[in-house]
Amino acid sequence: MVKSVEAIFENGVFKPLEKMDLEEHKKVTIIVTNEPEEIFDTLFLVSMVYDGFSAQEIEDIEKVATDRSRFSRNGD
Fold it and tell me: Matching InterPro entries, A to Z (predicted)?
């Protein structure tokens, strides 16, 4: 699961500003940025594009996205 959560860094500890649906002592990876949410690292944002899709759904989306037969220079 990839999720963006705002947090406060206080007394050496990150404190999320919303309730987290995690079990106690669950190991997670935290990406720290001082930039506004809109300026996240491009790779991080891309990693969320297919979040929640099955492998088959991703394959179907990729087939449609790369099907050049639907492209037209004449606007047809």
Answer: AF2212-like, AF2212-like_dom_sf
Q: What are the pLDDT digits (tens) for 12-28?
A: 999 999 999 899 999 99
Q: Which of 3, 56, 61, 59 is nearest to 28 (CA)?
A: 3
Distance of CA 39 to the CA centre of its chain: 13
Residues 8 and 15: beta-carbon distance below 8 Å: yes
Which pTM value belongs to this model?
A: 0.41
Secondary structure element (H or E) that encloses residue 16, with its range? strand 13-16
> What's the pLDDT tens digit per position in 36-73?
655 566 777 777 888 889 999 999 988 988 888 877 77
In the numeric block, the tokens 């809109």 are attached to 38
Per DSSP (E only), the strands in the chain are 7-10, 13-16
